[in-house]
Write a structure and sequence with these properties.
Length: 237
């Protein structure tokens, strides 16, 4: 009797395994030699926005997409908030831009700056205000991380290029002391903390990254471990 029960149980189990097998379908695809747009890669279109500038236009972005562009560069200038919080109205404008970007099927190379002035005083914000603004932007950026290709480390200096700055260098733009370097690093760390782990930050030159993270190059293990060093690349203006 026990042997008969055991055989029955095995038979039921085998039948269940057979029934659980997936059903396979074969598809035949025709070759296509057309040039496909490459998401999050390639050439990009430049756009900027100050307080008085127009928002992103859905029609313009759709035209970019039809021309084969999947990226725009978007720099937000914050001259009215150098020593004050970013207004809710301006944050809402950024949110509206992100919604238009999403609807258009493209992504943003994102940067923030306070000034485009290359003579003293340059007009960027102090380290404390930069960190405050990053904190304000964090919920907005996390909410819209799906349309952010990369966040460039702006904020510091004219055009956010980390050179012509009132607060992050001492005496002259190219004299970056250890204290200045620590304040620059605090900006990078805050930016990384404000983004999900699957989003990255770019510095303007490899030298900026080397001074903050050291000389050791990334290897296959370090490159994908989610560390701050692994999430920082560089761009070239």
């Amino acid at each position: 009797m026990n042997k008969r029960i055991s055989l029955t149980v095995i038979a039921v189990q085998l039948a269940g395994m057979v029934l659980a097998q997936p059903r396979w379908s074969d598809y035949q695809y025709d070759p296509d030699n057309a040039a496909f747009t490459n998401p999050s890669r390639g050439f990009y279109k430049y756009t900027s926005r100050g307080n008085a500038e127009e928002p992103l236009s859905p029609g313009t972005l759709e035209n970019f997409r039809e021309d084969g562009y999947t990226l725009i560069y978007r720099i937000y200038y914050l001259p009215d908030f150098v020593d004050s919080p970013i207004s809710q109205a301006y944050l809402d404008r950024i949110r509206e831009d992100f919604q238009v970007v999403r609807q258009s099927g493209i992504k943003v190379i994102l940067r923030f700056a306070y000034t485009s002035k290359s003579t003293e005083p340059y007009g960027d914000a102090s380290p404390d205000w930069v960190l405050h603004h990053i904190g304000q932007l964090e919920p907005l950026l996390r909410e819209n991380a799906d349309v952010i290709a990369v966040w460039q480390a702006g904020f510091i200096g004219a055009w956010g290029e980390w050179y012509y700055t009132d607060h992050f260098a001492t005496g002259s733009p190219n004299n970056v002391t250890e204290e200045d370097l620590q304040e620059r690093e605090s900006v990078i760390r805050a930016m990384l903390d404000a983004l999900p782990l699957n989003r990255q930050v770019q510095l303007r030159t490899p030298e900026h990254k080397r001074r903050i993270f050291g000389d050791e190059p990334l290897n296959e293990t370090l490159a994908y471990n989610g560390s701050d060093q692994a999430r920082v690349g560089h761009h070239n203006d």
